[in-house]
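Please decode residue identities from the backbone states below.
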């Protein structure tokens, strides 16, 4: 299948929601990722001089004997190394895996009641897009959703806009204090990096302009390029998560066999998902 683009889908509609059903998406994948220091065993030990990859050895004996623990000095040595990204085993990550499993089982996506921030984001987005287009003298093409499956699992992204043949924009509607913080940092907040890199990865585009907008304040944007280390982590974590979701689905189906299927009742049809 490779890259599938849903050009006409309008974000937030039932059809858009259905296209995302059961798929790990750029906006959610950050919930699955935990940043950690590398394993101490991947560096040499300054205390017992064990080589990278080898266990620490006891210094109490004449002939070195491998031990199960790691010397503290070895662990401290990893703090200066680049971080390692792993599949998070916390509650938030678990809830996302279960949600995606439920979507695959039912082929249905639950709408969620939008928060005030989500509503403001939806209402602000066209203004932010227009301000960006005006500032850069470009045309921004809106599309609904894209899915790439070349890694053996599906990864989805709903871009806020395509620019030229090789660019994207990701718009964030911000409260004024976050806008000030972003300008001071001069880079996207850390919690948006997974989404940005997934967007670049799924779309295959070569740059993404991160657009931070707070009505009444100056428009801020900065260009982000694909980061190979991040993207490698996204693919491996995505693959691991997808396999876990499939496990959950097949175990569920096995356990539930023979039990009665109930009818879905939408008590709140007016509620809308908008992000
Ligand atoms: Zn050691």
């Amino acid at each position: 299948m490779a890259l599938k683009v849903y050009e006409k889908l309008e974000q937030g509609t039932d059809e858009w929601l259905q296209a995302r059903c059961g798929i790990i998406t750029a906006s959610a994948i950050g919930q699955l990722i935990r940043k950690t220091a590398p394993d101490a065993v991947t560096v040499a030990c300054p205390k017992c001089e064990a080589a990278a990859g080898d266990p620490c050895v006891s210094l109490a004996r004449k002939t070195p004997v491998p031990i199960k623990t790691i010397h503290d000095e070895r662990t401290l040595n990893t703090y200066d190394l680049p971080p390692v990204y792993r599949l998070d085993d916390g509650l938030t990550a678990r809830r996302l895996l279960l949600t995606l499993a439920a979507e695959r089982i039912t082929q249905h996506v639950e709408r969620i009641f939008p928060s005030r921030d989500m509503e403001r984001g939806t209402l602000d987005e066209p203004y932010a897009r227009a301000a960006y287009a005006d500032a850069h003298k470009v045309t921004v093409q809106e599309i609904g959703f894209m899915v790439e499956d070349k890694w053996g699992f599906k990864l989805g992204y709903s871009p806020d806009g395509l620019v030229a043949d090789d660019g994207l924009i990701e718009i964030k509607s911000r409260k004024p204090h976050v806008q000030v913080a972003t300008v001071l940092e001069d880079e996207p907040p850390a919690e948006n990096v997974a989404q940005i890199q997934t967007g670049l990865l799924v779309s295959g585009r070569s740059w993404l302009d991160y657009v931070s907008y707070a009505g009444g304040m100056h428009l801020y944007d900065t260009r982000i390029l694909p980061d190979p280390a991040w993207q490698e982590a996204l693919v491996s974590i995505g693959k691991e998560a997808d396999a876990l979701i499939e496990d959950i689905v097949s175990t569920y189906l096995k356990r539930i066999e023979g039990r009665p299927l109930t009818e879905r009742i939408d008590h709140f049809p007016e509620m809308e998902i908008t992000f």
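Observation: The domain at 4-35+85-248 is CATH 3.90.320.10 (Lambda Exonuclease; Chain A).
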